[in-house]
Amino acid sequence: MNIKKCIIRVLSLLVLLSPAFADAISEPVHLALLKKAYPDVQFSCTYDPSVRDYLVHVQVDSRSADLYWSDGRLLPKDELVHKDRYWSLLYRYEKEVLDPKNFTPQDIENIKKFTSKENRRNGAGTPPFFFDVLYDCKTRAATERHIIKTTFLGKTTNIHERIAVPLRTVEARIRTLAKKDTEVALFIERLSRADSYSWREIRDSSSRSFHSLGIAIDILPKGWGQKNVYWAWRRDIEPDTWMLLPLERRWMPPSSVIQIFEEEGFIYGGKWVIWDNMHFEYHPELILYRDNK
Question: What does the pLDDT read at residue 21?
Answer without folding.
Answer: 46
